[in-house]
C-alpha cells in the first residue's frame, strides 16, 4: 500500500504570517518603490490623501492604493513611474533606522551558514533596527522561536515597528527583551534549549559562557563584528574556552555589473567591507578538541586599552534621531492595521 497521501487528502496549508503583505493590490501603510524613466528609485509609505513630490510635480498616493504590484502610474506633469513592493533587500535599506543595519549580503550568509531552519529556536543580540531579525523570522517561520535581546529601548522600538510593518502584525515566533544578553538569556532560556545564537555586538567574547550554557550540543554560534580586533579577540576567547570548534571567519563583498549591449563591465561602486562573520559550533559536554592547540601570542593589555578608548570616542546616535526613527517605523504599522481592519 502506498504510504504517501494524495494532494487532495492533505490538509490545506496554513497561510504564513506576512505572506498576505506580499500579495494582492497595494494597500495603505505599505512601503512601495517608485522607479522613474531614468531608473531612479524612491521608497514611500502609502497613506490615503498623501502625495509624493519632486521638482517635476507630484504623484497622489490614492493613484497607487488598490493597484496591482508592478503597475505604471503618471504624475501631475506626465512623469511616469513603475510601482513595486520592495524586495526584502530594498525594504531593510530604506526602513527607519537608529543603528547601522546588517546588510542583506551578510544576513543571507548568516541564515545559510548558521543553518537557520524552520522551527529553529534562535537567540539574537543586539537588535539594532531589526534588519537581521526580519531575515531570522522568515527563516524560523511561524512555528519557530526568535528571542531578540537589546540593551536600548529606542532600538527595540524601532526594530519592533519595522518588523510589524513588514509582516503586517506581531510575529508569533518573536520575543524581544530589554537588557544584557548574559543576564537575560540565562534568565529566560533553559540550558541546552537553543539551536542557534547570533550576536551583533561590541564585545561578543564577554558572552561566551552564557552562549555555551544555553546552546544545544552541535548548535551554531555566529557573530557579526566590525573590526579585525573584535574578530581576533572573539576567536581567541573561543579557542581558549574548549567548548567550541575551531572558529571560521570570513567576509563577503558584492559587486554589480553594468549591462548595456557589449559594454559589459563591473560597476564602479560596490558594497565592499561591512563586517566580519565568525562561526563556531558547540561540542557535547566532555567532548572537547581532539588535540590541544598551540597558544600563539595574543593581545597585550595596552593594545586592548587603546582599542576600547577609540571605540568610546565614536559619536553616539542622538536620542532625537532615534525617537524620530521609532515614530516613522510605527506609522506604517498603524496605517496597515487600519487598512486591514485589525
Automatic annotation (TrEMBL):
Residues 1-28, 316-342 are annotated as: Disordered. One of its GO terms (cellular component) is tRNA (m1A) methyltransferase complex. Residues 317-326 have a biased composition (Basic residues). InterPro entries: SAM-dependent_MTases_sf (IPR029063), TRM61_C (IPR049470), tRNA_MeTrfase_Gcd14 (IPR014816). Residues 92-259 form the tRNA (adenine(58)-N(1))-methyltransferase catalytic subunit TRM61 C-terminal domain. Gene3D superfamilies: 3.10.330.20, Vaccinia Virus protein VP39. SUPFAM superfamilies: S-adenosyl-L-methionine-dependent methyltransferases (SSF53335). This is SAM-dependent methyltransferase. One of its GO terms (biological process) is tRNA methylation. It comes from Pseudomonas vranovensis. GO terms for molecular function: tRNA (adenine(58)-N1)-methyltransferase activity. Keywords: Methyltransferase, S-adenosyl-L-methionine, Transferase, tRNA processing. It holds the Pfam family GCD14. CDD domains: AdoMet_MTases. Transmembrane segments: none annotated. Residues 1-22 have a biased composition (Polar residues).
